[in-house]
Amino acid sequence: MRNKFLISSFILAIVFSGIVTAYETGGYDRIDETMMTISAGHATSFVIKPDSSLWAWGHNWFGQLGDGTTTERHTPVRVMDNVALVSAGVHNTMAIQADGSLWAWGRNGGRLGDSTTIDRHTPVRIMEDVVAVCVNAGMAIRTDGSLWAWGSGWLGRFGDGSNEDIIHLTPVKIMEDVVSVSAGVSHTVAIKADGSL
Predict the structure, then answer these.
(1) 72 Cβ neighbours under 8 A, 6+ residues apart
(2) Best CA proximity match to 38, nearest among 28, 27, 30, 49
(3) The pTM is what?
């Protein structure tokens, strides 16, 4: 047991020293150290800085960085302003602005909820009054506690009776009084205001 503890401590010390060294030598000099919120997708990274600007870098095959291109970025590029929350998915991204508007971009095929299946290389407005979003499942909670979903209802993950044959191109209401939602590949769980799961 003692040997396992010593080995684990040694590995953590190496990892931590690498992080400190990278920071001290400028490995992270492209990002303000006072950054506020981060989200990582599949080979993409996003940060909301204290001025509420959203920055992105990484792979950009489907425009998932939102900078108007499909060019891979090795340094952060500014995407949009007034952002309160960002959620990065596998090939698409969603952000909530300070006014509660939900924006989406990247690979579509019905995943963005913008009434099309067209990939978007810049953010498009999806809906209003949003307080939380689950990008990989295409779900959002609005200020009134209603849960909305879009995209494929694969294996019944929306809980509305739909399946993989039905694709919602725009958000549809699923349930009321929701305070939290989390989705896996083929299922979803939500907590309601009364504490029920």
Answers:
(1) 58, 59, 60
(2) 49
(3) 0.79
Regions of the chain with pLDDT less than 70: 1-35, 162-165
Query: How would you label 120-141 residue by residue, b for 16+ Cβ within 10 Å and e otherwise?
Result: bbebbebbeebbbbbbbbbbbb
Q: With contact defined as beta carbons under 8 Å apart, do 173 and 148 qualify?
A: yes
> Domain 32-192: which CATH class?
mainly beta
What pLDDT was estimated at residue 125?
98
SS3 51: coil
Q: Domain boundaries in the chain? A: 1-30, 32-192
Residue type for position 147: L
8-state DSSP, 146 = -
Model pLDDT for residues 106-138, shown as the tens digit of each residue: 999 889 999 999 999 999 999 999 999 988 788
